[in-house]
Write a structure and sequence with these properties.
Elements lengths: L10 H14 L6 E6 L7 E5 L7 E2 L2 H10 L3 E2 L6 E2 L3 E4 L6 E3 L5 E3 L3 E4 L1
Amino acid sequence: MNNLLNNNGSIVSLLQKVLLHNAIFPDTAYSFHGFAGFDGRTVQPVLYQPRVADAKPANQIMIDTYMAALGFEKTSEEGRFTNRDYEAWDLLPRNVLVDNEGDIFVVDAEIKRL
């Protein structure tokens, strides 16, 4: 359930971010399941993202390497990357997992289309 605080209260903004996430990181694609909230006070979208089993936070070198493999260039700010179409940031160990096989999974990132 998303309280929309990081999206200026905009459901449209959240869903646009989800579409960008799903295009770049399909292994951790979100799906929309409906709405919840408090009667007469709030509406909160309910999103689902597959669980990554037996995972731990990836280190920054793993994240940088993964993003480079996806065609992104690292900027001067840690955890921020760009390519000709997108800017993605907040790609830090708290938002990126690595499983036992070394596969990387982005579970939360900020993304905008350039």
